[in-house]
């Protein structure tokens, strides 16, 4: 993104002056308080919201000049919340991720079946593959959305709060899956995260947003400092360093 500004028809600018690069093999965590513009940034990157100013470029091509199908072959998005798919099974929903690769009749080929099987396995959904998605728990549906995005096999993966609704084990597993896919398949990944600890553990770089502006962008150590997080989130927190591996961890501190 180069100097991107974005707004909604109703209101003021939701993003302003955003310049951000995400490279292949890199997981960039986007952090910031509610209303900071994180989901708006996801909409611009996935081509669903046109920048009012500046330019978003995907694999060297301006997003503005690409049609939806071309974008879908390059970008897989896991949106915030859970999209219901009444009447469809888990396997069918994950297969929908293959649509950008299929012809007009949407017939699944061996390559599609392989990608779906791999994504179901990666997200621990093999046992649920035949179940209607509408009958799953919130966390299980979230994993289905992630599996669908993985099945899409796009070079760019965008996740809006992948850990939301997940219990501890599945939260760890989903973040591990994303991390592994990013490394092994050299994906460029943007993940909106509210969990500071997940960001510190899994991100290569962190983009910190506040009121539509990019306040800081860099490594965990550069960006996730006590002072900066306290200023941006307007909350008291404890920033610790694990002596064993030097990683950072964060605890909210009760207000006085
Ligand atoms: N569809 C919309 N129409 C008008 N304004 C919107 C729309 N969606 C978001 N906004 C506004 O744009 C700003 C940024 O919202 P955005 O959803 O990008 O924030 P966010 O950082 O993702 O927040 P959260 O952490 O709460 O999900 C907010 O002021 C919000 O009110």
From TrEMBL:
The keyword Nucleotide-binding applies. One of its GO terms (molecular function) is ATP hydrolysis activity. CDD domains: ABC_Iron-Siderophores_B12_Hemin. It comes from the Bacteria. Keywords: ATP-binding, Nucleotide-binding, Translocase, Transport. SMART domains: AAA (SM00382). Residues 1-236 form the ABC transporter domain. Part of the ABC transporter complex HmuTUV involved in hemin import. Responsible for energy coupling to the transport system. This is ABC transporter, nucleotide binding/ATPase protein. It comes from Sorangium cellulosum (strain So ce56) (Polyangium cellulosum (strain So ce56)). The gene is fecE.
């Amino acid at each position: 993104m180069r100097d991107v500004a974005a707004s909604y028809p109703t209101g003021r600018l939701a993003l302003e002056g955003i310049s951000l690069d995400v490279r292949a093999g890199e997981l960039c965590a986007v952090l910031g308080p509610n209303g900071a513009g994180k989901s708006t940034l996801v909409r611009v990157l996935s081509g669903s919201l046109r920048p009012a100013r500046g330019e978003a470029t995907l694999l060297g091509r301006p997003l503005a000049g690409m049609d939806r199908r071309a974008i879908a072959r390059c970008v897989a998005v896991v949106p915030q919340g859970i999209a219901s798919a009444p009447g469809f099974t888990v396997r069918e929903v994950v297969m929908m991720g293959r649509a950008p690769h299929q012809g007009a009749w949407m017939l699944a080929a061996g390559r599609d079946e392989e990608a779906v099987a791999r994504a179901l396995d990666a997200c621990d959904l093999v046992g649920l593959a035949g179940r209607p998605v509408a009958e799953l728990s919130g966390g299980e549906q979230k994993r289905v959305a992630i599996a669908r995005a993985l099945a899409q096999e796009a070079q760019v993966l965008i996740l809006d709060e992948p850990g939301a609704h997940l219990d501890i084990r599945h939260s760890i597993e989903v973040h591990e899956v994303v991390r592994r896919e990013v490394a092994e398949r050299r994906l460029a990944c943007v993940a909106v995260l509210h969990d500071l600890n997940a960001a510190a553990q899994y991100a290569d770089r962190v983009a910190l947003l506040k009121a539509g502006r990019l306040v800081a962008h860099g490594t965990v150590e550069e960006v996730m400092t006590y002072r900066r997080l306290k200023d941006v989130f307007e909350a008291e927190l404890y920033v610790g360093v694990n002596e064993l591996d030097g990683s950072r961890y964060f605890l909210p501190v009760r207000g006085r």
